[in-house]
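User: Hello, can you help with two protein structures?

Assistant: Certainly.
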Amino acid sequence: MARWKEALVSRQTSIREAIQILDKSALQIVLVVDENQRLLGTITDGDVRRGILRGLELSQSVQEVMNPNPTVIRSEDDRETILATMRSRGIHHMPLVDDDGRLVGLDTLDELLQPQRKDNPVVLMAGGLGTRLRPLTADCPKPMIHVGNKPLLETIIENFLSYGFHRFYISVNYKADVVKSYFEDGSKWGANIQYLHETHSLGTAGALSLLPETPELPMLVMNGDVLTKVNFAQLLNFHSKKQAMGTMCVREYDFQVPYGVVEIDKHRMLGITEKPIQRFFVNAGIYVLDPAALQFVAQNTFFDMPTLFEKLMEKKKETIVFPVREYWLDIGQMSDYDRANGEYKEFFP
């Protein structure tokens, strides 16, 4: 929220001035920062009252009443974690700081509960055949299989809506009418839905060439077979703050080698590691793209998202990653489908 800047004070500010800011800003919090805007502490009405009861003069510095160790959040913290922290600690505001401790924003409980409307387009890829999920996909595209009590694609759209997104493009090919007849224009969900018709498979990025016009704002792109609780608002904020051309969500993936691994140098044995665990970051199938990235998308031909990112890197464009720490599951085969249905009520009540 932009109004948080009205609540900034220096450590030399008097308690009296802080009270005036508390009353004037209506934010119910004052943020004490140094000359580099690093957060030093916070002040609420309760802090002021406790200071007065201790006999402090209103002319004294805010350092005498501020909380020097406030609970803060960082860009990677998800919405549910922030809300849970606020509720458990009985607080209504949490300063947002960067890796250097500089104040960059303020989240409030009211704003988290009432998502801000976002005009950024969301492109959902729903044209895949889903051959590994047959017979479930014999009569519908993979994103329309039921997980929980509704189609997977409906859960995805509702998640975006909960963060204020309302403009959707759905890329369709296989069994396109199933998707179109179910969602129509999206008005039932308070959304605006348009369709990108693939006459042949265009891959996870090629369908972007079918957009009727180049968006003015960064767009979110997501595979229609991913079930996740990622904070889309924080993802977009992260992308914008880093001024990236493309952001790829990544998920940490562990793989345990089932054997003892022998390290060698030519014929000499250097060591043995028993069943080591290898850790990687894998593509999570969720992206944010600057409109300028569309110029690198091949027209009306198969073009995957990893190829687009390779192209962006080749052109020395800023490409970054956003680690997904929230619930995430790629429903690619029957075991994933069974797991999704088993976990759905826990993560999507």
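That covers the first. Now for the second protein you mentioned:
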Amino acid sequence: MNAIKFTIAGLAAGTAALALSASDARAAWPERPITVVVMYGAGGGTDTVIRTIVNEMAKSTGWKINVINKPGAVGGVATRYVLGKKDDGYTWMGAANYNKFVRVMGHSKSRAWEDWQYMQAANSRASWAVRPDSKFKTFQDIINAAKANPGKITISTSGQGGLWHELAAIVAQSAGVTLKYVPYKGGKPATLAGLNGETMITGGGVHEHIAHIRAGNLRSIQQTGSKDIDAGGGKIMPSVGNFLPQIKSQLPFSGIYNLAIRRSVPKSIISKIEKAFVAGVKSPAFAAIAKKKFFEIDIRTGKAADRRAAQVESITAATFEKLGVKGSHPANELGLPKPAAFDGWWPPQGYKPL
């Protein structure tokens, strides 16, 4: 009997020691370098933003953080890489747009609000502008012309299925019109095309248009932020929400910069990462890059990030379906509502916030 008692006591002590050891390991985390896997190539916008944030995180915490790039399949390569690593908090994903394209395009089945905890830093808003001699003076002028001439009003975009193409299409679809999207190799070439009169509307990002608007070379029609932007010199870039009030709850339509952690990582570790992330986004270094690029700092974590992740995926799925993007999956196949029904759908059945 005594031997049994001693055995049981020993087992209990061993179990307690293992639990204490796991707890101590989480408390001591990180004990080795962290790797951030950026889903796009080195030197691009997402890479620059993520490197700035994690550099500030490293400075404020003393953590050693290495950044690598795994581009491909609009985020699918990086997603599979991080999911293949141990969920111990040592491998993060540097993402854009809540990685919304991977499920829509069939590159991954992981759900942003179930399998990941996203943290949002900032928005990069889209813009429509016209030359000073354009016959279009207002947003409504363009909508009227597009309704009278479906598919004939041209707008420059950053390429078929690219971010500025998608965001221009979201606005057009919300207004009930069809535009002709003329693809260029990036936002800057799309802006130059509009300046040269190659298209009726100049598409691109706020950061690509604002200097031309200040100089009087372009006139702002709308931008996809939730508020008007004062461009200086009496020039205002109006929010599209002024003209389409039905989409105000979905704004901003934008490029979004994120950090993503696997949801199965211990909560205590995710909390440490989130605290350092928020401090990094609030740093002077990140404020400087946001000012230079005309990004809107918009920090979202926890439930707010989960909700936004599902919402932007719903919007993209609906937009790509209407555009007929080859290989894309509609919202209903993904278990998502149409954008107009999102507020009534969220939170979905079974959703569990961290």
